[in-house]
Task: structure prediction
Amino acid sequence: MPRIFERLADWRDERQGLERAGTAVGFVPTMGALHAGHRSLLQRARAECDWVVLSIFVNPTQFDDPADLARYPRTLEADLALADGLVDAVLLPAAEELYADEFRYRMTEYALSTRLEGAQRPGHFDGVLTVVLKLLNLARARRAYFGEKDWQQLHLVRGMAEAFFLPTEIVACATVREPDGLAMSSRNRRLSPAARRRAASFPSILRWAADPASAAAALRDAGFSVDYVADEAGVRLGAVRLEGVRLIDNVRL
Ligand code: PAF
Result:
């Protein structure tokens, strides 16, 4: 079983020891409810780094809807079982310690973060970037691993790391999909069996529609409520709702 760190002082002591030994640390930040997509990030970190730390923290500042935060699955025991053998340490910080400043200090990006997900979920990326900056500063990793499913998150985190000269390399990892094509997500488990079957058409409609407007129309015809579909830098991005469950995905054009 990996070592678990709940207090930041204990983690800092551990991190100092690794620093002295020149250990290349790999870092995978998560909000828990781990699935095969997270496993693939951990496997990549394991293959590329000497030592791997996973963080699990359901970050309140990135939820614009308190009901969504309350519903977010918390499955610590299963998460630790999935991570067993892949990680050396698990960081489980307390909100009081991570946000000792009560979110008075925050990281804001003023362009990409205001569109697409940012337009639908005001303040979301301030919360994501702020917590990722805190976690990257704590982990001081050689590399940190992010999934391409959260395309905007990945690009914003990478942009922040460049803009602020962070020493950590941000590694993009391909989206892991279910056999029927649906991107792995902690939210999938909230779909009813019928909605889960219907959800499989989301990525294929994004991929095969001629343009964003026809993709949005086809998604509506298939029973989704559509937040947006947009083409951006060779990628088609979409966000939809099914039975109130919000799904995002993107495919290369
Ligand atoms: O992708 C996630 O799980 C979260 O947005 C992250 C990067 C762990 C920050 O809370």
About this structure: Residues 29-31, 59, 62, 128, 131-132, 150, 153 surround pantoate (CB under 6 Å). The radius of gyration is 18 Å.
